[in-house]
Amino acid sequence: MTQAHPTKRRSAPGSIRWSLAGLAVLLASGCASTKDLDTLQAQMTDQVAAVRSEAAQSRQAVEALKADILLLKSLGIAVDNLKSRLDAAQGTLQGVAKETDRLRMSVGSLEQGTVHQLQMEMTLARERVKQLEQLIDSVKKSGLVEKDKLETSTPKP
């Protein structure tokens, strides 16, 4: 950004007034010559040039300030846009965090349910195995009893 440095202002209109008043007094008294008039005109021309130069510098400073203001406005808009985008991203992240927590809880519940179901199935399977073992034992016993009956009922040669 450009900074305008205040320049020392000459009071041109006031000095021109005093010069004109002094010239009028000199002309009225007959003490002023053409050379004095030329000198006064040169001074006035210099002062007018200085005023014009100051005015041009002031216009340039004003234009530079306007450009800086436009730049600051556009930067302000850009910052506001970034803030909005950051707010939206933060909202999205909060939503993702909530969803992640919800999913974590669901997975935990599913895991507990699955473990419980597997434990129940294992218990049922053990009971079934016991039943089958008992059935096998009873079949073996009934098979032995009949074998014994067959052996005792058939004569031996």
**Run of helices and strands:** HH
Structural class: mainly alpha
- Rounded to an integer in angstroms, the radius of gyration calculated over CA atoms is 56 Å
Biggest sheet descriptor: none
Say how many strands there are.
0
Mean pLDDT: 83
Describe the structure using short key phrases.
mainly alpha, single chain, 0% strand, 2 helices
Describe this structure in words.
The chain is mostly helical and 157 residues long. The chain has one domain (12-153). Helix content is 88%, strand content 0%. The protein is built from two helices and no strands. It has helices at 12-29, 34-153. Helix 1 packs antiparallel against helix 2. The longest helix has 120 residues, at 34-153. The chain is rod-shaped and about 180 Å long. It starts with 11 loop residues before the first helix and ends with a helix. The mean pLDDT is 83.
